[in-house]
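On clarity, I found the account of how folds are encoded harder to follow than it need be. For illustration, here is how one protein appears when written out as sequence plus structure tokens.
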Amino acid sequence: MSNRSADATIKGFLYQFNASIQEMIDKGDGDFVIEGIEDLDYKTPTGLSEAIQYKYYSSKSATPSTLRDAILPMLTDFKARKKNKQPLINYKIYGYFKLPLSSDVDEKFINSSLVKGGDAPRDYKKELNLSDALIEEFLLHFKIVCGEEFESQNKQLLESIANRFSCTIPEADILYYPRALSLINKIAINQEEKDRTVSCETFFNDLDQKVTLFNIWLSEYKGKRKHLTEISNFYFKKKSLDYHQRFFVFDCTGIEENKIFEIVEKTSKAFYKKQSSRVTSPSPHITLYGSTDELIAKIKNSFRDIGYRFVDGYSFKGATFRLSDLCVECNLKNDIAIKFVDSIEKINDVVGYYSEIKELYIISGFGASEQLAKNINLPVKKIELSSVTDATLLY
């Protein structure tokens, strides 16, 4: 593929995503399916309303032959809905073309799109048994919109984002727009349609996380190492504060066993401190959110194999959870280096058990800490990183 072809392909994808985001902003409510019947399907509470196909043809005109591949699936879907007595929907082709429409979109236009010439001629109207009456009715549900070229479209979208989120154009460009593209792409790659469906409310709520967006920008702007150093100095400069009880919730979703082991080991070494006569900083309480029970058991066995002592509130196989077993005092004799709190739901009770000063931290990827914090009815310090595995560089 030539550089020019590659640039055109990338621009085509961006144009589709930009137009999808703009459509969501314009509609304001309802549900959308990314890559449904068409590139974007719009659903109202009463059912599917509109299927939209996006095109970016900077070197082609908006002719029947150019649009044939977009029109045919729409006509086929319309015919099937009529036959199966399903609710009818609207269809729209939205795109940029070298030359816009030069004629009305009427029966003549549709019929022209159904005839293919050249070495392998096709008559799709005859092949698909499309009657004049069906095409006439289809036209009541079909339209072609010639949009702006990419740069103008992008400028308009940034203005719409700025208005939607009451921010400046630079903020829309630097903070909101990249996240919007990321969210759209993340939704589009799902296999199941239900996972490619998103409501306007959910999409905008996920997008409107200014603090998270700023953290992402700050990390990129300063560089990972410098940014992590600043976080470390802010939160963990004094790691050996005398007998503070510390709690760490790590969002370990999708993280491999060896990486989780390293996170726990580094955290234990950083905060479990002892002198010849006493323990000066007790073992940290660690919750591995998003890890399976099987994976947590493997990690515990790995620590036991290398001589680490830990407690988790269960004193024997089949035992019920006991706070007193988990919150046992750390001393030189028992040498407890880690306290595992196996679920977020237990944290409130565990914290309440102690009379010492408590510090709670949630360490997650960008945008995940708020949801985790909802399960903890206590003040918590939220640290968001580009990857939770970077926690090993914090202390």
Summary: The chain has a mean pLDDT of 87. The first helix runs from residue 3 to 27.
